[in-house]
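Continuing from the previous page...

OK, I double-checked the sequence for Methyltransferase domain-containing protein against my notes and this is the correct one:
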Amino acid sequence: MKNQHHSTAGAGDIAMAELLDLDAEVLHTYLSDVTAWLEELAGDRPPRRILDLGSGTGTGTFALLKRFERADATTLDISPHMLRLLGDRARGLGMADRVRAVQVDLDAAWPALDTVDLVWAASSLHHMADPDHVLTEAFAALRPGGLLVVVEMDFFPRFLPDDVGLGHPGLEARCHAALIAGQSDDWGPHLSRAGFTIEAERPFAIDLRPPFPASIGRYAQVSLQRVRSNLDGRMSADDLATLDTLINGDGPEGVLRRDDLTVRTTRTVWVARRP
Ligand SMILES: C[S@@+](CC[C@H](N)C(=O)[O-])C[C@H]1O[C@@H](n2cnc3c(N)ncnc32)[C@H](O)[C@@H]1O
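Thanks. Re-ran it with the corrected sequence; updated structure tokens here:
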């Protein structure tokens, strides 16, 4: 595996990498549903060369490589830390020879790339300063007839019951209402503008109930911490204090020890083809 990156990780990258890995662990069934659907759409020409844009720690990369056993992948990300973890995971899975990780700022000029059959961009386009530039480059990287897959989260996962037992019923709903402004985007017009034909747009509703993997409490904690970091000044001091107790409390009310968690979220997947 070729890693073109160095330097140390920032706190933001470390926290994000943990969240991405937990996401992959807890939501793996949904990812498997997405790749099974892609296998159907690809028909008698399954992808051999895959490009993962903003790959993070490789959640999408490895799900695709497991589904398409004869494929290899180039993963592009701006973060050396993410790519380092992705490399470790590739070695752990015995897939190192199928992955090439390249550090690149997708908003800048792209390196020369081989033509690919499938481009995957999960939860990454909304991070770009200029997503239309990224889509134009993705179009150029694809062979005619190749597929671009864009995945975006409609809203942060929800974990809590309406009444968390600490007063203030409806807390999580209020958090999400405070965050919702400007969060979701319709990528269809962006894809059309870049020259793609849209094949499908499909929501994947996720509604997980116990039994959960042991990491569920930590997943809820890290996710809610991320939600919390965007809420200062947007909610009452009482609500924020209750949220802090849920996130950090080490008693039975804290998410690490609660036995009433669920996971509810929706991801939308757009599949577009280069004509
Ligand atoms: C929310 S993560 C998604 C990671 C992965 N696709 C997944 O679904 O687990 C977004 C990723 O985009 C990367 N990223 C953000 N801006 C970028 C840029 N300008 N160029 C390349 N990668 C970028 C981040 O480093 C991060 O790994």
